[in-house]
Amino acid sequence: MALQCGIVGLPNVGKSTLFNCLSNAKAQAANFPFCTIEPNIGVITVPDDRLTKLAELVKPNKVQPNTIEIVDIAGLVKGASKGEGLGNQFLGNIRATNAIIHVLRCFDDGNVIHVDGSVDPIRDKEIIDTELQLKDLDTVDKRIQKVEKMAKTDKDAKRTFEILNLVKAHLENGKSIRTANLPQDDFDYIEDLGLLTQKPVMYVCNVDEASVVAGNKYVDLVKASVGDEKAEVLVISAKIESEIAELESYEERQEFLADLGLDESGVNKLIRTAYKLLNLYTYFTAGVQEVRAWTITKGFTAPQAAGVIHTDFEKGFIRAEVIKYIDFVTLGSENACKEVGKLGVEGKTYVVEDGDIMHFRFNV
Ligand SMILES: Nc1ncnc2c1ncn2[C@@H]1O[C@H](COP(=O)(O)OP(=O)(O)OP(=O)(O)O)[C@@H](O)[C@H]1O
Ligand SMILES: [Mg+2]
């Protein structure tokens, strides 16, 4: 389950700057194949102190962190959904992503051109949201045409048709699908459309150095406008992030952050938020061959979690041996945990918790 996030925004707001420092993080720890998939897709490793700690204890041959793919597309402009500018042809590239990173310019700098002549993140946000909604409207309309005839005879098609029309009305009111008050069962009917405004979104306020800690007036406006929309607002300075990404060592980066009054980098914050927004958990496998992090959705049972490694693990699942992260690091090894009864044997109904160290027994 490769998690994918797509970056959208107006031109020249700092999308690629952000993308590049995410990709730099990749270059530092490039222990996975196919790093660069396409020029505009970057694979980054998910920083996780727990994985580092486990690797220190187990000393495996290989450490494999979680990865996220980031897709940087060209800036969108007004009319993009009708083919204006470059961005439209790339909107398709973010159809398959799990979440949207929407970059908003929240810094004053006369040297950096704004396509609309002034800094106004609320106007910018609306332009992009509208373009995404129009693109969705287009997708929905096409599907309506496709199912309309069938809807007269087929029950499922009829329900799909009804839901599509509800969704259409919502979009026509200038609203994003994620704010539509539909039961999950209804959403299932339109799942395969990959509607852009249905995806969870993180608004990234790209600020100047002076505003990374306390924010600024633009950030306040963005927060107020997002309101109770199912979304996260992050304050990040892409410029500072690119400076952080250039520092060689972990210590140097921590020092730099501390000087600014920050305890974690924006990139970290972004990844953590993506996990939260998407309800994701991490579990670990810790063998001498490999210590590895795996991504699952909150609520996954042991067999489902095993299925992330290989479908055979899920099909032939017998049981799981589970050690809590805190026990593992306190006691120092799997054997030490076993001796004091801290290795739990769990069956098919066990719901995996964040940080669990799992060992699956299965037969194929
Ligand atoms: N926080 C910031 N403060 C000051 N300047 C910034 C900041 N973030 C980005 N910039 C500058 O803004 C300019 C545009 O950045 P970038 O190329 O990343 O934009 P973009 O959104 O990718 O544009 P496009 O859509 O055209 O690809 C660059 O010169 C970059 O250095
Ligand atoms: Mg760019």
From TrEMBL:
Record's Gene Ontology CC terms? cytoplasm
In its UniProt record, a GO molecular function of this protein is: metal ion binding
In this chain, ATP is annotated as bound at: N12, V13, G14, K15, S16, T17
Keywords, in A-Z order: ATP-binding, Magnesium, Metal-binding, Nucleotide-binding
Mind telling me which CDD domains this protein's record contains?
A: TGS_YchF_OLA1, YchF
TGS domain ranges (all copies): 279-362
Q: Which cofactor does it need?
A: Mg(2+)
Domain OBG-type G, chain residue ranges per copy: 3-256
Cite a single Pfam family from the UniProt record: MMR_HSR1
User: Which NCBIfam families does the entry link to?
Assistant: redox-regulated ATPase YchF
Would you identify the family this protein belongs to, as annotated? Belongs to the TRAFAC class OBG-HflX-like GTPase superfamily. OBG GTPase family. YchF/OLA1 subfamily.
The task this protein performs is described as: ATPase that binds to both the 70S ribosome and the 50S ribosomal subunit in a nucleotide-independent manner.
- Record's protein name: Ribosome-binding ATPase YchF
